[in-house]
Amino acid sequence: MNLTPIWGSLTVFIACPLLGGLPLIDWITYALTGRQLSKLGTGNVSVSAAFYHGGKVAGVCAVLSEAAKGIIAVVLTRLFFPSGSVWEILAIIALVMGRYWMGKGAGTTNAVWGILAHDAIAAGLVWLISLVGFTIIRDRLIGKYSALVLLVVIIGLRHPYQLEYTFATLGLTSLLGWIYQNIPDDLDLVATTEQSSQK
Fold first, then answer.
1. Is 82 helix (H, G, I), strand (E, B) or coil?
2. How many angstroms separate the CA atoms of 45 and 107, rounded?
3. Residue-number span of the structural domain to which 138 is assigned
4. Which of 140, 146, 84 is nearest to 115 (CA)?
5. Alpha-carbon distance 189 to 41, whole Å?
6. C-beta separation of 107 from 179 below 8 A
7. How many domains does the chain have?
8. pLDDT tens sequence across 102-114
9. For the whole prediction, is pTM greater than 0.90?
10. Which of 100, 109, 112, 115 has the alpha carbon at shortest distance from 181?
11. Which secondary-structure segment (H or E) carries 83?
12. DSSP character for 53?
């Protein structure tokens, strides 16, 4: 009996949420600055919060730690399933769920780098089209949600006869969209502070 798919499923649905929930950003910021992000600003333990409250070094370390989580989730999945399989997207979903429910963050950095590791071409196309769109529209909120829609469309187009990729990506983007609706945006805090300083 081949137990590889079983071990792979356990990795995706148990190990990946735990990986996402590791409070690396909080640990890094506290180690470098002595500040606990959960007690500052919006209370988010996020990359933008690390930049805002911890400074550039803490912010860069936060980006690297969360990017590594996304890549590791995909690499772990490839130990049990073929490279580029839909299981990689499911692993990213599990990672983001752990990041939100245990780590108190949106998981955007995890998802971006996870998708980059899963399908660099799709990630590059989303980034390029989103960048062009943002230079024209210049609305951060529209840009954020349009990138989610673009990701579903592009992944779907790259797998036109494998609908499981489209549905899995739709699940990921729906989760991210729901999280965006339920978590404060630290960039709003930055904008508010800048406006106050200009008065």
1. coil
2. 10
3. 4-198
4. 84
5. 7
6. yes
7. 1
8. 888 889 999 999 9
9. no
10. 100
11. none
12. I
Distances (CA, A) of 148 to 16, 57, 181: 21, 29, 14
The conformation of residue 38, written as its DSSP 8-state character, comes to G
Asked which of 62-71, 74-83, 109-118, 182-191 is least confident by mean pLDDT, the reply is: 182-191
User: What is the distance, to the nearest Å, from the Cα of residue 77 to the centroid of all Cα atoms in its chain?
Assistant: 17
Rg value, the chain, Cα: 17
| Full DSSP string of 92-116 | HHHHHHHHHHTT-S--HHHHHHHHH
Cβ proximity of 151 and 169 under 8 Å = yes
Alpha-carbon distance 149 to 197, whole Å?
A: 35
CA dist., res. 97 & res. 103, Å (int): 9
- Distance (Å, rounded) from C-alpha 175 to C-alpha 88? 16
| Phi, psi values for residue 126, rounded to 5° | -60, -45
Contact 96, 21 (CB under 8 A): no
